[in-house]
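ok, trying the design again with the full structure, not the truncated one.
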């Protein structure tokens, strides 16, 4: 009997009318037609996230962040085992929505087996449309890395965080942990 591949759910968070805040949304929109990925776009509320990943075992959440890092830098975190980056200043990112969603899903027994957070450091969260150049470049690199997760011919993807690090480049994406192998 052939082994069924477990699809990845990619959830993009963002507001396209707050410049770089739309980075996660842009990634998800770009991946929308990629076969092998389930894609959702949400605003960042905890309840939206819970609904978006309901019933999924492997989830990647992509969002802009305002941690004070260099604009366009990217992090990957195992959101089930590591703290999420905390925003600095008044920039409204969605880290608290994701953190609350993880806590609520844990209490309800609804956590996915794997939950990866990819954060793209933004530069401009003011009202307006379009990503700044550094964030747009980072979003494109994240898209290319996530496409690889969906490729059924590519069986080399055993550690998504390490694989994304290789695809995006050592200086742009830093894996902070390892995900456990999917056993479903």
């Amino acid at each position: 009997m052939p082994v069924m591949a477990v699809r990845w759910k990619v959830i993009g968070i963002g507001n396209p009318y707050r410049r770089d805040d739309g980075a996660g949304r842009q990634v998800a929109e770009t991946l929308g037609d990629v076969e092998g990925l389930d894609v959702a776009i949400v605003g960042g509320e905890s309840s939206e996230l819970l609904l978006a990943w309901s019933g999924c075992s492997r989830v990647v959440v992509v969002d802009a962040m305002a941690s004070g890092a260099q604009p366009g830098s990217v992090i990957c975190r195992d959101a089930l085992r590591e703290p999420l980056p905390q925003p600095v200043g008044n920039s409204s990112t969605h880290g608290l929505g994701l953190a609350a969603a993880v806590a609520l899903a844990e209490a309800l027994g609804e956590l996915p087996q794997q939950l990866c957070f990819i954060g793209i450091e933004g530069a401009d969260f003011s009202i307006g449309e379009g990503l700044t150049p550094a964030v747009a470049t980072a979003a494109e690199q994240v898209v290319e890395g996530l496409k690889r997760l969906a490729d059924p011919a590519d069986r080399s993807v055993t550690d998504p965080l390490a694989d994304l690090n290789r695809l995006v480049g050592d200086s742009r994406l830093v894996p902070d942990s390892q995900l456990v192998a999917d056993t479903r």
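Keeping the full-length input from now on. The domain at 8-173 is CATH 3.40.50.1450 (Rossmann fold).
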